[in-house]
Amino acid sequence: MISRRNFLKLAGLGSVAIAAGYTTGKLTGNSKSENFVVHGFIPADETVFENLVSSFKNKIRSNAEPVVIADSKISEVIVKYHNQHSTDLFKNNGKIVYRLKRLNKQVDSDIIISDSANPIYSIDDLNYSFNEIRRNIRNRKADYLFTAEYKEEDLISSIFKSNKKEIVIENQKGLVDRISFDKNYKNIWIDGPLGKTGLKIENGIAQVHTSACRHGICKHSFANEVGNIIACAPNKVLIKIEAV
């Protein structure tokens, strides 16, 4: 199994959260948004899909209907396991989004987890079910990039939430630019130590189209909501969405 450090380099995540806001051990009662995210490279194995969805559901304790961003057949599989692992004991009602995208080349399988208290969980902090998933995919090649995200806002945050968003771009030198989501941009170039990272914004979605690093895994992610982050650790580029 790849090391945590190498996984972060491969994923282009660095030491930043995929999404932030979740407080360890508690999904309600705080005056801020709550997020919990599972992100990983996984093999094309339905048992792995089911175990990830089950562990995710047990952590977020929500039966909310999910949004699934994947091709139709895989979407059906994710929804099936999501519904199978629902229970009346789950009372949270935040937004759930699953994303599953086939990789254009195989890499080593692994998973990472993030929340506001732990931008990236250390391996020792993973609970038993997630540790078992990591153990079972050890030494296997990944076919998919998987993300499961739970997001919940308290009443105060939802009332004062801004409808306007902007892209904040940073590199190793600091702030590069702030760009409104109101317009489309085909090519926004960001300098980094390895070269230029290319970003596009179309119809309210930001996505990296050109990567200077060897793996280019950041091109598999996109950002369209406040709190979403795309990061390339090798090229020291951070792209995030903030409320204006």
Automatic annotation (TrEMBL):
InterPro entries: NusG_2_sf, TAT_signal, TAT_signal_bac_arc. PROSITE patterns: TAT (PS51318). It comes from the Bacteria. This is Uncharacterized protein. It comes from Ignavibacterium album (strain DSM 19864 / JCM 16511 / NBRC 101810 / Mat9-16).
